Amino acid sequence: MGNIGSEYSNTRHNVGYLVLDALAKASNIAFVDTRYGFVAQLKHKGRTFVLLKPSTYVNLSGKAVNYWLQKENIPVENLLVVVDDIALPLGAIRLRPRGSDGGHNGLKNINEVLGTQDYARLRFGIGNDFSRGRQVDYVLGEWTDEELKVLPERVALAGEAVLAFGTVGLDRAMNLFNNR
Fold first, then answer.
1. Contacts of 166 (CB under 8 A, 6+ apart)
2. 39 near 20, Cβ under 8 Å?
3. Which of 20, 12, 2 is nearest to 126 (CA)?
4. pTM of the predicted model, to two decimals?
5. How many domains does the chain have?
6. Using CA atoms, how far apart are residues 103 and 118, in angstroms rounded to an integer?
7. CA-to-CA distance for 95 and 119, rounded, in angstroms?
8. Residue 1 domain-assigned?
9. Which of 93, 128, 130, 178 has most Cβ atoms within 10 angstroms of its Cβ?
């Protein structure tokens, strides 16, 4: 998940875009601006991954996710949403088979539109170094220089977790990546 527009490109809320951009770059593929988002198809170990960066803004991601699931005939059990998480330390990643929105409006919207919470998500920790009442400013704030030093390695690891989800399955991917 992420927000469109240059004003959001370096914000913590756009970590999902960061992970997909890194995957695309490493695979030498490009995103195409199309209906409800920017889409790229990545081929890996005999699988086709449809990478979607919704253009509906984070809080309305459900519309884009649902459209592309339907268009590509992708079952919900093959959906993996990459999302920022303030409950995790910076760079920590957690694969989960399902769950609540945890206060994340993007996940809340996807849950509402899909009518289920039963889809996988890769939560990417952005930390929680903000004062009371400043959560929105923090999440929509740009990465600090210190955070930028940590990001490349952690973003690459998250990309590996995405590929593992699609090739070895969720359970095995969780075992491989949740404690790294």
1. 44, 47, 49, 78, 80
2. no
3. 12
4. 0.93
5. 1
6. 16
7. 11
8. no
9. 93
Token pair of 103, please? 């206060």
Residue 45 within a domain = yes
Burial category of 33 from C-beta neighbours within 10 Å (exposed 0-12, middle 13-18, buried 19 and up): exposed
Q: Nearest 5 degrees, angle CA 25-CA 85-CA 37?
A: 45
Whether 62 maps to a domain, the answer reads yes
Residue showing tokens 């995957």: 23
Q: If we measure between CA atoms, which residue out of 150, 164, 180, 174 comes closest to residue 15?
A: 150
Residue type, 179: N
Helix (H) or strand (E) holding 170: helix 170-177
CA distance 91 to 54: 22
The set of catalytic residues is: 13
Domain hosting residue 87, numbered range: 6-177
Look up the CATH number of the domain holding residue 68: 3.40.50.1470
Structural domain contains residue 155: yes
